[in-house]
Automatic annotation (TrEMBL), chain A:
This is Carbon monoxide dehydrogenase. Residues 21-141 form the Aldehyde oxidase/xanthine dehydrogenase a/b hammerhead domain. GO terms for molecular function: iron ion binding; oxidoreductase activity. The keyword Nucleus does not apply. Signal peptide: none annotated. It holds the Pfam family Ald_Xan_dh_C. The lineage of its organism: Bacteria, Pseudomonadati, Pseudomonadota, Alphaproteobacteria, Hyphomicrobiales. Coiled coil: none annotated. Gene3D superfamilies: Aldehyde oxidase/xanthine dehydrogenase, a/b hammerhead (3.90.1170.50), Aldehyde oxidase/xanthine dehydrogenase, molybdopterin binding domain (3.30.365.10). InterPro entries: Ald_Oxase/Xan_DH_a/b, Ald_Oxase/Xan_DH_a/b_sf, Ald_Oxase/xanthine_DH-like, AldOxase/xan_DH_MoCoBD1, AldOxase/xan_DH_MoCoBD2, AldOxase/xan_DH_Mopterin-bd_sf.
TrEMBL record, chain B:
PANTHER family: XANTHINE DEHYDROGENASE SUBUNIT C-RELATED. It comes from Reyranella soli. InterPro entries: CO_DH_flav_C, CO_DH_flav_C_dom_sf, Diverse_Substr_Oxidored, FAD-bd_PCMH, FAD-bd_PCMH-like_sf, FAD-bd_PCMH_sub1, FAD-bd_PCMH_sub2, Mopterin_DH_FAD-bd. This is Carbon monoxide dehydrogenase. One of its GO terms (molecular function) is FAD binding. The lineage of its organism: Bacteria, Pseudomonadati, Pseudomonadota, Alphaproteobacteria, Hyphomicrobiales. Gene3D superfamilies: 3.30.465.10, CO dehydrogenase flavoprotein, C-terminal domain, Uridine Diphospho-n-acetylenolpyruvylglucosamine Reductase, domain 2. Keywords: FAD, Flavoprotein, Oxidoreductase. The keyword Flavoprotein applies. Residues 1-170 form the FAD-binding PCMH-type domain.
Amino acid sequence: MNAPTGIGARVKRKEDQRFLTGTGRYVDDLPLARATYAHFLRSPHAHAKIKSIDTTAAKAMPGVVAIFTGKDIADAKVGGLICGWVVKDKHGQPHKAPPHPVMAVDTVRYVGDTVAMVVANSHDEAKDAAEAIKVDYEEKPANVDLAKALDKGAAEVHAAEAPGNLIYDWEIGVKADVDAAFAKAAHVTKLDIVNNRLIPNAMEPRAAAAEYDKGTGNYTLWSTSQNPHVLRLILSAFVLGIPEHKLRVVAPDVGGGFGSKIFCYNEETMVTWAASRVGRPIKWTAERSESFQTDAHGRDHVTHAELALDKDGKFLALKVETIANMGAYLSTFSTAVPTYLYATLLAGQYTTPLIYANVKAALTHTAPVDAYRGAGRPEATFVVETIVSKAAKELKMDPAELRRKNFIPSDAFPYQTPVALQYDSGNYPPIIDEAIKIADYKGFEARRAEAKSRGKLRGIGFSSYIEACGLAPSQVIGQLGGGVGQWESAQLKFNPTGNVQILTGSHSHGQGHETTFAQLVSDKLGVPMENIEVVHGDTATTPFGMGTYGSRSLAVGGSAIMKAADKVIAKGKKIAAHLMEASVADVVFENGTFKVAGTDKAVPLGQAVFAAYVPHNYPLAEIEPGMDENAFYDPANFVYPAGTQICEVEIDPDTGVVEVISHTAVDDFGNIINPMIVEGQVHGGIVQGVGQALLENAVYDKETGQLISGSYMDYTMPRASDVPSFKLGYKVTPCPHNPLGVKGCGEAGAIAAPAAVMNAVHDALAPLGVSHVPMPATPLNVWQAINGASK
Amino acid sequence: MYDFHYHRPKTLADAVGLLKGKDEARPMSGGMTLIPTLKQRLAKPSDVVDLGGIKELAGIKVEGNNVVIGGMTRHADVASSADVKGAIPALAYLAGHIGDPQVRNRGTIGGSIANNDPAADYPGAVVALNATVTTNTGKHTADSFFKGLFETALSDGELVTSVSFPKAEKAAYMKFPNPASRYAMVGVFVAKTAGGVRVAVTGAGPCVFRVKAMEDALAKNFSSDAIKDIKVPADGLNSDIHASAEYRAHLVNVMARRAVDAANK
């Protein structure tokens, strides 16, 4: 018997065969005849005026085809890159929108800013020529320290368009109400934290290749994009002006994105623009150091938060002030991340009745900052879950008990939070109970004592996260300033012999859609897995769709597939009714076969499909031939996965080294299609969260703005040996508003883990009197915290 | 990388001949530092003389009371050598913890000590065991070989042919790896040989150095307690985003005590 392949089965990933045997096709693998190679000359300075650029010598170098500078692009009237989300500040004014030129014209604003593009017959020749370009810079003071970016006297990144480096001063909630609640509080817990800046580090660096067909005037761009249709829309409508029907964007196999490949970047824009000028295809692949310098970074908040509690430990109000780093230019969705994806999550799993958040977005002379796995929600969870654990410590309460006391009751859903979101479903107490059981919380004190006998400090930390994902109801997004719809598309294209292509507007760059989506259709329509192909990533073949980010692909894209499948069944019923000479109302569809209830009449789906393509015996008067159904699905609400993670660490007080001993995650992702893939997503997410908590840190020199952690020599990526085998569990409350009852699992691990780990670190160090360790809790930071406490 | 002339001589004499008179020629042993440097265009040698084809430079021999390791012997071969494990297990341990498997299968002892990266592991062993470095032109004592940051006693065209390590009565290496690169942020090699006790520290300063106060204390009493209060001054130690000078100074003491404990096991 074949292994099960339906919903809930642990089907091995179809795509892994090619990935693991080196037969995937990535952008850099494309064989393009007569290709040229691009190299970008980048700014070595964080802030400088470009006094002159002399490309004369460089243009005469061997193999050079063309050199373009910012001036060339400006002269050609190429538009700047856009920020696609208009956030209105607390006075109702739209955010400041400084220009984001595709290449710097007269000023460079971060180390890595694009100064010139060299196109040559080989990559080496392009690099050689780039070295021969003479740029005369006048260095200027750089503003790199986020905490001081909005201070008077800080060097301005865009003085004219964003005075004082302020992009917006935004708020949610009523401050006076919150202040009144604080005045009556029995206890106030205060917290000052920095959410450390991260560099995405997808395994495949960003890459772009473009070709221009002179005969038709058509452009093709191959790009490492998470959302090729959106990239095409931006390039067409705002930047290059190439109409959408003359621009094809293909995102073939893509090796990881984590958000960093959502955005429209300089390099792919330049490669496309230059392809028609050069008259030959152009290829570009980032070197790893370019990825470090120029991929949009993540997180980077400085936050002060206060939680007011009554004498019984009930949360009365939460007040949060955050400065969010935007970098030197506003990346595609940068403005939304620290507002609508952050402050709206500050209720967490709790009934906190009053919340006020003030977010100031600041420019600095650093790489742009935008969405990175979790995007705003990890930052929110870190604030909420850290302050809750800190409050528990201060009140000498059990951290699980304090959480339980404040959980939204199971019968209170749908639940309207004070920060705009309405949680559709959830049931939090059984999740924490299960996590406590799996983690053997009861046995912790004995383990702590045993660790102490070995000279180790053991600590335990909780993190009960909520996330709003499955982006998103289009009209809500529109009201909040988002510039795009957030539905997803699907097309089920049957071939005459009964096999089927699922065309999706979402994009897989590691998530396993080729398997999960095939499972949906196999389960629903009874088509064997091997007869299903998932097609994604090509604007020429797939319907317009929004791509993959925000844990949306299954909840939104999968729902679109289900809608299309319903249309297939509805049409198939009419065909089958005709073939069986029955009434449509009497036809049922079961296990891939149309039947007339109470009879032995049956028409397999394949037979109905064949009849649709060879309509000799077919109700042509009533229905069209063919079996090719489209659907667009716009969700009614976000989906709200939730869960609790429990981390246990041991710290070596002599060295400050933190070891994660055990990590438990219990999640409610709604219904689960492929548990193996979900586990993989949770594992990867936790590792990224542990990475943020203990290892990863993007560090710019505060004076010079040089990226110090610009390679793997200094940027600490998590390794397999840094984490234990994770303990996972699930609780299921199906999403009530999508046809699959699914939520989202892609970001949860990364959202919850940093707080769980840091709470464990603080718990371990509490006996030494340590109250604060900065994230990441590197050996140095832990040792300094211990040392500071003991002095 | 920039273009260069590549040579792969079969004998030491040919290698020396190829390097002679060429100011911009560079010898290459395992290439674990040179290749990344070339790829980042941080070096522009006219010629690269690959020593990998010189059979006489690789291999491990026991000669009397010494273990003699050829300059082109790879870390993986030192780590797995029964001779090294038998005579100086701490040296095999050190070699087995350099970099990652790829580095250990390419990198060599001669290349490592000739480069004298402040965060390299081998200098700690060479100094603590008071090894002798033999080159095509002569011999260097351990103490005279390492001169400073990326600086050694080697003159132009002088190649490390072998390193001779005296057997140790007790020895251990404790490394605190840089969390990102896994180079030694602080590595302490403690050895008790016929010549006495030595404590050599790598990673913490611009160049490997000895801690005389610990050596004296351990000569009297080879136990971790004997050095627990001996602090190394932070002045002059390396400081970066991973470790301040003060933290490195602290780690020297911790790693030294752990090395002594390990050596006593």
